[in-house]
Amino acid sequence: MAQRKGQTGNPNGRPKGTPNKVTTDLRTWINEILNNNRRQITNDLKKLEPYQRIAIFEKLLGYALPKLQSVEAKLDIDLNALSDTQLDMIITELSKQIEHD
Fold first, then answer.
1. What would the pLDDT profile of 48-100 be if each residue is shown by its tens digit?
2. Number of domains in the chain
3. How many CB atoms lie within 10 A of CB 7?
4. Taking the chain, what is the end-to-end CA distance rounded to the nearest angstrom?
5. Which residues contact 90 (CB under 8 A, 6 or more apart)?
6. Which of 34, 45, 55, 86 meets the CB 3.0–4.6 Å disulfide criterion with 82?
């Protein structure tokens, strides 16, 4: 019997954040191709115009590296209500975090 829209035979489903097996396999395969053919790819890229080289490189990076997500900080702090000492502490902590990243 067919499932109703929005229902599944597995109510728990795949856990959030678990990568899709097909996508993982494809990325692994492409990485292997790139790794096994580095010399040939490098030679082929050198024959291209610079703008073509950059365009291809950019496309290949999408398969080799995870995409970064932008992060938005939402603060419910009234900075005007903080003392200079408190603001200095916040700045110091943020600077430390930036240095470690």
1. 999 998 898 888 788 777 777 766 666 677 778 888 898 888 888 888 888 77
2. 1
3. 8
4. 52
5. 82
6. 86
Computed from CA positions of residues 83, 87, 89, 90, in that sequence, does the dihedral angle turn out positive or negative? positive
Give the largest Cα separation in the chain, rounded: 67
DSSP state of 77: -
Query: What are the tokens at 42?
Result: 């490098």
1 located within any domain: no
Domain containing 52 equals: 21-64
Q: What angle do CA 77, 74, 89 make, to 5 degrees?
A: 50
Residue 49, in any domain of the structure: yes
Whether pTM > 0.70 for this model: the answer is no
Q: Where are the alpha helices (DSSP H) in the chain?
A: 21-36, 38-46, 50-64, 84-100
Establish if 51 belongs to a structural domain. Answer: yes
pLDDT at 15 > cutoff 90: no
Q: Is the pLDDT of residue 11 over 90?
A: no
